[in-house]
Design brief:
Layout (H helix, E strand, L loop, with lengths): L2 H19 L32 H19 L8 E5 L1 H4 L4 E2 L2 E2 L6 H7 L1 H5 L3 E5 L5 H9 L14 E5 L2 H4 L5 H18 L4 E5 L29 H23 L3 E4 L2 H7 L14 H15 L8
Parallel strand pairs: 1-4, 1-5, 5-6, 6-7
Antiparallel strand pairs: 2-3
Length: about 300
């Protein structure tokens, strides 16, 4: 059985599982004892634990297949940057799970105007709304979003993932480990490339924060006021543990994009992140400029 057939069969089994459950909103990622059904550093497509409904599962499968087919058709000289991530990355296309979304109407123009879009015009945007580290890991390992031909290219990749792990109940240290796994996989699959790993962006929303308590509660046994404490822990571990390990192995091919401070300064009145999570057009313009400046600091192998 070839890889394509195995992938199709596996997705078919997942779809059947979701169909049998119908609406999966009551199926939590992590139970009250803190045991999670998906692991941030082990590749997994979206399952009943990471989708809300059969319809969303079908949308994810369709959107993921479209990304895999699109990059397989790209001419090597028309690819110099990959943006890998979740809804924040996908917003640069103005979409959510492959469909146009009004909330993301501003970011596409911001990519064209910012330093990132101007300096790397041949960009492929590979974001899927709601994805977590294990889902992105599956997409690049088994989903066809990093095809074999990219191994021979001196291209860059920017990874922005992890925020959805924490609002489904994954612990910060496990989420950081998942980000590490994604970064290392991309670095191995792009031996001639360079990889910029973004901090998990600041977020002040409370999406699902009461649902995941327990087990993710404060010392009083109450839900946290926001996800910002978890974000700060992830970023601390990412910078002081995982990035050091990655740099020891891959040198100046990998770096950490630290854009949170400028986003926080600009967002004091929720001007650039109105929902507390997703930057609007202005916010994505700021983020794109920050990414571009920090990507310039990295070096290609033998470069």
């Amino acid at each position: 059985m070839d890889t394509s057939t195995e992938r199709t069969l596996f997705l078919f089994v997942i779809i059947i599982a979701v169909t049998s459950l119908g609406d999966t909103r009551s199926v939590s990622m992590c139970n009250k004892d803190g045991i999670c059904h998906e692991t941030p550093w082990i590749p997994s497509p979206r399952t009943v634990y990471s989708t809300y409904s059969q319809r969303q599962m079908q949308q994810w499968n369709k959107a993921q297949n479209a990304l895999a087919h699109r990059i397989s058709d790209v001419k090597p000289d028309k690819l110099d940057l990959l943006l890998l991530g979740d809804s924040i990355t996908e917003s640069w296309e103005g979409k959510a799970l492959g469909q146009p979304h009004q909330r993301f109407s501003g970011p596409p123009a911001s990519l064209e105007d910012c330093l990132l879009g101007r300096q790397w015009p041949n960009v492929q945007i590979h974001g899927l709304s709601g994805d977590q580290t294990q889902h992105l890991l599956w997409r690049i390992e088994s989903g066809g979003e990093l095809p074999t031909f990219t191994r021979d290219l001196s291209i860059s990749a920017i990874i922005l993932i992890g925020t959805n792990n924490i609002h489904t109940g994954h612990l910060p240290n496990n989420t950081a480990k998942g980000i590490h796994a994604v970064a290392e996989t991309v670095l191995e699959k792009l031996p001639k490339g360079r990889v910029l790993v973004s901090q998990v962006l600041p977020r002040s929303d409370r999406t699902h924060i009461e649902r995941i308590c327990p087990p993710r509660c404060n010392r009083k046994g109450e839900p946290y006021a926001s996800y910002l404490p978890a974000v700060e822990i992830i970023n601390h571990i990412l910078e002081n543990v995982h990035m050091k390990q990655l740099k020891e192995k891959y040198g100046n091919r990998v770096g950490l994009a630290k854009c949170n401070q400028i986003l926080l300064e600009e967002n004091k009145t929720h001007v650039i992140m109105p929902d507390g999570l997703h930057p609007n057009g202005r916010g994505m313009h700021i983020l794109g400029n920050c990414f571009a400046k920090q990507l310039e600091l990295l070096k290609f192998p033998n470069g």
